[in-house]
Amino acid sequence: MIIGVTSLIGGGKDSVGDYLKNKDFTKLSLSDEIREEARKRSIELTRENLIALANEMRATEGLGVLAKRVVKKIEQGKNYVVESIRNPEEVNELRKNKDFTMLSIWASQKIRFERVSKRMREKDPQTFEEFLRIDHIEAYNPLPHAQKILLCMQMSDHIIVNEGSLEELNNNIDKLLHKLSE
Q: End-to-end alpha-carbon separation of the chain, Å?
């Protein structure tokens, strides 16, 4: 089974990935592919630098480049969670695997901003205005090689609303896993 996960900034995709990892899924991240490339190029790991690098990679190597890199790591017969899907062609590339299911995690901007403010990662936005700017850039950008998270969410097979506790999120993941294994 391969579960792809997308969400807007602070939505909870990393929490889903961590939970599934504890359930014997191998966790792969398209963002980790970008970070690895940034390190090779000595690019500072800021959110905006990573977005720009991913956009450049999609423009020069194809829209599904990050998913193609991750697919090379997938072994048949194992369970995987693939996080940080941000472009529809990444979804399309992953859908070539017969055991693939696309999952979106949704939460309101207010809740997501509160989470981002607490986690302090890669120079996350610290003001609500800055958060809204990043949220808009990531949600849908008209450039074909850019992030289009809302379009990815529309391509999902399942949506989990994540506005409660971590325990509630985990319970919803368990329900999804049960449904997928039927």
A: 12
- Give how far Cα 34 sits from Cα of 43, 69, 99, 102, Å: 10, 10, 25, 21
Please enumerate in sequence order all residues whose Cβ is within 8 A of that of 101, keeping only pairs 6 or more positions apart, or say none.
Answer: 1, 2, 3, 4, 157, 158, 180
Sequence letter at residue 52: A
How far apart CA 162 and CA 171 sit, in angstroms, is 11
DSSP character at residue 96: T
Total domain count, the chain: 1
The CATH number linked to 165 is 3.40.50.300
Residues 111-121 as b or e (16 or more Cβ within 10 Å = b): ebbebbeeeee
Query: In this structure, is the dihedral angle defined by the CA atoms of residues 149, 154, 159 and 165, taken in order, positive or negative?
Result: positive
Residues 6+ apart with CB under 8 A from 63: 87, 88, 89, 90, 144, 145
Q: Which residue has the tokens 């889903």?
A: 16
Q: What is the pLDDT of residues 80-120, one digit of tens each?
A: 999 999 999 999 999 999 899 999 999 999 999 999 988 87
Planar angle of CA 14, 18, 20, nearest 5 degrees: 115
CA 11 – CA 111 distance, rounded (Å): 8
Domain that holds residue 58: 2-181
